[in-house]
Amino acid sequence: MALALVGGAFLSASLQVLFDRLASSEVLHFIRGHKLSDSLLSELKIKLLIVDAVLNHAEVKQFTEPAVKEWLLHLKGTLYDAKDLLDEIATEALRCKMEADDHSQTGSAKEWNSISTWVKAPLANYRSSIESRVKEMIGKLEVLEKAIDKLGLKRGDGEKLPPRSPSTSLVDESCVFGRNEIKEEMMTRLLSDNVSTNKIDVISIVGMGGAGKTTLAQLLYNDARVKGHFALTAWVCVSEEFCLLKVTKSILEGISSAMQSENLDQLQLKLKGSLGDKKFLLVLDDVWEKGCREWDRLRIPLLAAGKGSKVVVTTRSTKVAAVMQAVHPHYFLGELSADDCWSLFTKLAFENGDSTAFPQLESIGRKIVAKCQGLPLAVKALGSLLYSKVEKGEWEEILESEIWGWQNLEILPSLILSYHDLPLHLKRCFAYCSIFPKDHGFDKKELILLWMAEGFLRLSQSNIRMEEVGDLYFHELLSKSFFQRSVTQESCFVMHDLIHDLAQYISGEFCVRLEDDQMHEITEKAHHLLHFKSSSSEMVVFKRLRPLWK
Ligand SMILES: Nc1ncnc2c1ncn2[C@@H]1O[C@H](COP(=O)(O)OP(=O)(O)OP(=O)(O)O)[C@@H](O)[C@H]1O
Ligand SMILES: [Mg+2]
């Protein structure tokens, strides 16, 4: 189910680009100026809206019905074709505008424009064929539309991600490895007086999905020193839907008897009274941007707690930490060390945690662990998956498979949550990043220029430059843990391997990368292509390759 939802978001993002193009003044001017049928473009838009309406259902169904999968592939290809056509119309419109301006020009500018007109001369026929190409596109969409009923596709608001099972404060410490250093640092902070003038300090644990934020918070929460220090403690799993009433109730349940009321005022008064100047530790696990704005209101009754009280918040986003005014520095949870990952893996993958009895599996196991790049969620999921498998071939199969081959594991759904939380414009910027090689340290400015060239950036205010918009997009993705600062190359950024896999999964064969002189089959669908020379880190990016044999 989760896999299906990813594809849906990608297609919706593509449709949004198309609708933007259809509404752009260049396209409209061109259509009117060339007496092309206005209604033809409206028809194209209507057809697009029809397929859009059933997209969510189609994406769920594609995994059980190969015909639906095929339908989606055709749709993606048609959307790219439509986007290209509209791009071409916009370019033609610009060219015509330049020609018109040419009448008022003299000298070298005029000469240049006559050269450019001469170069473009063979394209004159092509311009007249735009109308027939729009018709062809409508025809393709019509075929897809006719199949909607036959495939049993229904209109719908879209599938919601299934709710995650909530975390609790309990943890099996014998299964947790590493994180001692960060735990002790945080412990000192927790047991000390507040660093700010606030009565209650917020301490944040930030990291990508599955990095072990909840686990670290559990370790802290259950530590005897913490239990002895705080008079009251409460653990609340917040998750995507931050409901102030529910969270207030959960805190109350944690520190006193439950109160059967739906009245927020009564609940807040009771909470305030129960805290009665006592030292209080509250863990708010898994807070997302959508909900953290409620923090302002939740905070007020908490101010009744005693001096030195703390709130520990775990989140994937530094923005949440900022909105909740978490004290600096935030605790970033990076990769689990290779040794700790291996200990975790052996504990789960081998009977009694003993890998020595299976030397033929150990070397494959180490490669599998390396593939997880310090993400405990992935190490744990793959270790557990391999527990019952003793055949070398089965281990090799896992090693060679990609993230989307691990459909029944928790890894992809967990990462998809972050992807789903992104607004449409960031979804396509992120998916595009699959064009980089894995582990490639990319430069912020370079990426922003690429996004600009693809037309991914949208100006929301006239007084802001395109580069600044790109900068905002970039920092959004950085704050949500999609990008990380490179440890080896200062000023560069990287994507975690599994996040890169996710981007690749989303963009599919529409984004292709050629590394060095390696041969790679490029299908007609390839829309973005990057050629990378590892020796010089040189990159050349192409947009939409047109087959010569067509
Ligand atoms: N240090 C560790 N040792 C062993 N297992 C760990 C460790 N850290 C995390 N895990 C395991 O990895 C999985 C993911 O961890 P956790 O739920 O803490 O991640 P998270 O960062 O809170 O993820 P999310 O952003 O999805 O909430 C869990 O099954 C957890 O038990
Ligand atoms: Mg968590």
Principal-axes shape call: globular
Q: What is the helix fraction of residues, given as a range?
A: 40-55%
Which small compounds were modeled alongside the protein?
adenosine-5'-triphosphate, magnesium ion
- Supply the CATH superfamily name of the largest domain: P-loop containing nucleotide triphosphate hydrolases
- Indicate how many domains the architecture comprises: 4
Quickly name the level 1 CATH class of the largest domain: Alpha Beta
Main pleated sheet: 5 strands, parallel
Instruction: Specify the structural class.
Output: alpha/beta
Number of helices: 24
Give the rounded overall mean pLDDT: 83
Strand order of the largest sheet: 2-3-4-1-5
Assembly of the depicted chains: single chain
Determine Rg (CA atoms, Å). 28 Å
**SS strand fraction:** 5-15%
CATH topology of the largest domain: Rossmann fold
Count of DSSP strands: 11
CATH architecture assignment of the largest domain: 3-Layer(aba) Sandwich
Please give a structural write-up.
The two termini are 37 Å apart. The chain is globular and about 80 Å long. The longest helix is centred in the first third of the chain and has 37 residues. α3 runs antiparallel to α4 and α3 runs parallel beside α7. The protein has a 5-stranded parallel sheet with strand order 2-3-4-1-5. Strands 6-8-7 form a 3-stranded antiparallel sheet. Strands 9-10-11 form a 3-stranded mixed sheet, with no helix packed on it. It has 4 domains: 149 residues; 160 residues, Rossmann fold (3-Layer(aba) Sandwich); 76 residues; 121 residues, Arc Repressor Mutant, subunit A (Orthogonal Bundle), CATH 1.10.10. The chain has 24 helices and 11 strands. It has 550 residues and is α/β, with parallel strands linked by helices. InterPro entries: Apaf_helical, NB-ARC, P-loop_NTPase, Rx_N, WH-like_DNA-bd_sf, WHD_DRP.
